[in-house]
Design goal:
Helices cover 47% and strands 15% of the residues. Helix 4 packs parallel to helix 9 and helix 5 runs antiparallel to helix 8. The termini are far apart.
């Protein structure tokens, strides 16, 4: 579909969007509304800056994306009958992505001109870069993740599954819920020989409390888009720790999750001046989070630095 200019972005729902809204409405505003059309040269400076800041990435995000790329490559090789990749093979692919992010982050002016084509790490934009110790820890994390990937049950099963969908990094899928597009980013979906459907979520970091909530959206996608009526298994593979977490979602589980999403959509749209156009209320109606101790890690910290500093008063 050819690009069409829109005064306001299309409204949609995703787990990450809901999470951002819950954590900080102001960051949510910048990400989905304040940055919209900021790619135009004649856009207001705040919109252009918000758009650039939206494009910031981080070492953790790039490392996670590199692990996902390695997982996709390994499974594709196995399904094509090629020799199984080694940890060294996968690390070779990953280091190119991370080295590119590091190199491009050292050229601020080039990123400022083309923020959608180049990488800028949060650690370089707001700080002095990445220390040697962080680089060494990242190397060890990559090697451990790839070793555990090749030993994981999901890798072995997907390689032999009669049907398999391997998603690229940041490739989302969409299904509809009462007219609202629902976006999800499952890493791997496959069907075993007994017609059991498995959705896999690769994690390169630690266990987080909201992973079950995220996994349930993937299961909803499988039910709605693939017309699967039986229980759906979502497996979270914590590759750095070599641990696996599994969740079977029943029809009742997914119906309840759908209701939660509908409630979330209604709450988000209560911050709109015009729901039909997805026109938001003003920036001031989207407050900064109460606990400002984490604001310096936000992509949009630069835009509200003075307001955050004014709230951080007291002797401690």
């Amino acid at each position: 579909m050819p690009y069409q200019h829109r005064e306001y972005p299309e409204f949609s729902w995703s787990h990450s969007r809901n999470k951002k809204f819950q954590e900080c409405p102001r960051s949510y505003y910048y990400h989905y509304y304040g940055s919209h059309n900021g790619w135009y040269d004649n856009a207001p400076e705040d919109a252009r800056l918000a758009y650039r800041l939206k494009k910031l990435t981080s070492m953790a995000l790039e490392l996670g994306a590199a692990v996902h790329e390695g997982a996709s490559s390994a499974i594709q090789c196995a399904r094509m009958g090629k020799p199984a990749p080694t940890v060294a093979d996968l690390y070779f692919i990953a280091r190119f992505r991370l080295n590119t992010a590091w190199s491009e982050s050292n050229d601020f002016s080039a990123w400022e001109r083309f923020p959608n084509r180049r990488k800028m790490l949060h650690e370089f934009y707001y700080n002095s870069g990445i220390s040697h110790n962080v680089v060494e820890r990242a190397k060890k994390q990559l090697e451990t993740c790839f070793q555990n990937l090749l030993e994981s049950v999901s890798y072995r099963e997907a390689a032999a599954a009669p049907r398999c969908e391997i998603k690229k990094v940041e490739e989302f899928v969409t299904f509809d819920m009462d007219g609202t597009p629902i976006h999800a980013v499952p890493d791997l979906i496959y069907r075993k020989g007994n017609d059991e459907w498995i959705v896999v979520d690769w994690k390169s970091g630690r266990n987080k409390a909201d992973n079950i909530s995220q996994a349930s959206v993937y299961a909803l996608y499988v039910r709605e888009s693939l017309q699967v009526t039986q229980n759906i298994l979502v497996r979270v593979e914590y590759l750095f720790h070599g641990e696996t977490e599994e969740h079977f979602f029943t029809e009742d589980d997914l119906n309840k999750r759908a209701e939660d999403i509908e409630d979330s959509i209604a709450f988000m749209q209560s911050y709109l001046r015009d729901a039909a156009r997805n026109e938001p209320l003003g920036k001031a109606d989207f407050p900064i989070r109460q606990d400002t101790s984490l604001c310096r890690y936000c992509n949009f910290y630069q835009l509200d630095r003075d307001e955050i500093a004014a709230r951080q008063t007291g002797p401690f």
